[in-house]
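Data card: per-record layout.
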Amino acid sequence: MWETLLSSWGSLFEPLHDPVALAIPAFALFLVLEWVAARTLEHVEPDADGRTRPPRGGFEMRDARASLSMGLVSIVTSAAWKLLALVAYSALWVYVAPWHLPADAWYTWVILLVGVDFLWYWYHRMSHRVRLVWATHQAHHSSEYFNFATALRQKWNNSGEIVMWLPLPLLGIPPWMMFVGFSVNLVYQFFVHTERVGKLPAPIEFVFNTPSHHRVHHGSDPEYLDRNYAGILIVWDRLFGTFRAEGHRPTYGLTKPVGTYNIWDLQVHEYRAIARDWRAATSWRDRLGYVFGPPGWAPAASPSGTPDRSISSSRG
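The structure for this 316-residue chain is written out next.
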């Protein structure tokens, strides 16, 4: 196991093996290009429905600064989570996996990339339907802008993802390959966070996650909530009934805006809300509902008589 761990360690922390590290110059270039283009869109016009929204493809410097800051912190926190994951994945791969897939075989890479994407879909779906997991993910949805900076507004708690990808070493995929697969998926998702790209040719829109599909996912409009969880392949949403095509420009952000650019508050405010609801609950059923129910869950006997769904995307 120790040889596997040391080998995986070298692959994990060697920048030349990390697609995210290789993509950083491209991230920076596209951020600058999008920001320059957005300079021509500072004048805000009401949309057709009369609502005034941030300009299409626009930037707000405090918002973008918060997104970039959260992304920088996530580099450190995700490295710590990856270290824990490396130990667990290596142990499973060495001692439990019934076979070891060869790293130089094309089919191993296909299994890896499709497996990562399939498990991402289910993890992402769970993160919108289980409030405790939503608390880790909601910061990514807190921006009312949709641009490449928003793509970098990452969570600091990756524990749910670590658990979700446990099947991969059991399939015999070497641990170091798993981290490459995660990174490839993450790099792809950066490029779908933009309003600068309209709908792509129909065959691409049918198979792959695109900016159009992901704009729907970031929408807080009722018809867009809990839709389009895909990482790379939108076929998962089509297969499992969560797909929604873009019909109008979404309203971005949470259905109940946090109203701050403080990155600590953006990351932890939902945990605080869970703690408040837990303390106020009068039964264990209600306490468990507030933690493991969908975001916005409330007891049937709430004062309004209906669940409060104002916190986040809780319908689907």
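Known properties of this structure: The chain has one domain: 2-40+54-240. The radius of gyration is 20 Å.

See the next section for split statistics.
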